[in-house]
Amino acid sequence: MLNLSETDKLICILDPIDLKPIVEKIKPKSNKGPTGYNPEAILRAFLVQQIEKIPTRADLVSKIDRSPYLRYVCGFSTTGRVPSEATFSRYYSKLSETDGLELLMNNLLDQSIELNLLETETMAIDASKLEAYERAKSRSKIDKENSFTPDWGTKFDSHKNQITWFGWKIHAAVETKSELPIALTLTPANHSDKTQAIPLVEKVNDFLAERDLIKPKYWTMDSGYDTTDIYEHILFEQDSQAIIPINKRNAKQPPAGFYDFKGTPVCSGGHKMYYWGHYKGVNKFRCPHVCGKVDCIHGTKWCSDSNYGQVTKTRPKENPRYISTPHRDSRTWRKIYNKRTSVERTFPRLKEHLNLENLTVMGAKKVKTHLLLSSISLIAARIAAKKIKLQNQVLAA
């Protein structure tokens, strides 16, 4: 078995990360003047800050300066000077102006695919709050048209308590087996969660299409995403199924023809029809009297001459919001929906273990960079763990 030191673990996490394409985007354009610091070492230091949960850039400089092993891991000289806080800030600003980190994240996801870490059949989408580093402003002084500045947001937690904060919202599409983020967006906190569902779906499907991989079959989200346009986009544009609970809002009763808000048809006797499974995008329901679920005073002859009883079929295209395959009231539907909790576990990993919640930068671009550095660290750590597991299996054989 491989027993790794803390230094070895950091090296294993950073090892699969190819930073050369980003270095080309942020390195000085001129070769004149004194030799500067290696941009790749600075980039590694940014990742080390997230992995080691180092609070501030000043703390990062101090820790690297005092720690030979961190100098070695990052790639700085073990005896020379380390970059100043101003140097790190300058490179961070450059990094925030490029798409280098998004390309790097995709590169690591490619490695995850090669290691069979991802199964993209089911994706989960959700949003999470992120408090801004800058001082909160009154609502009247915020430019609502500017998506590059933070705003006030409010939501209910799992205990139905209302939470209010000044800052941002992180929106993520997570693969439910690996619990790794595949696509991310960032908005001011006042943006509704549902506005980012379709952009995330498209980003994930574009990523998979570029690699000739199969699109997700199911997209699971909480009831905050229960809007017709999301169902229709996922069904008609992506040929997939949205698994979202109905938000009853102010509705007193289900639409005509349905027994409940789960899309179950009502029989001619006024009873809830019995779900009999789905096949090729069609749900089948049978007479509840024949199936022994109710004792109908009309018997079976009321609605059908067959001993099999009345059969009703529903298709999502008839009403994408209420009808899904599998049927909402089925065990299969609930099993798929329960996978949504994967995204709820991903956010705490990023916040509590990979420094995401410790925000010390301002402006949407730099906050997005902070988010990507944490996400890249998470994916790289999962790749490292998988490789170590495979090596241990070889050693044990």
TrEMBL record:
Question: Which domain of life does the protein's organism represent?
Answer: Bacteria
* A GO BP annotation: DNA transposition
Q: Which SUPFAM superfamilies match?
A: Ribonuclease H-like
Transposase InsH N-terminal domain location is 13-93
Q: Which organism is it from?
A: Halanaerobium kushneri
The Swiss-Prot or TrEMBL record annotates one GO molecular function as: DNA binding
Query: Domain Transposase IS4-like: where?
Result: 121-378
Name of the molecule in the record:
Transposase
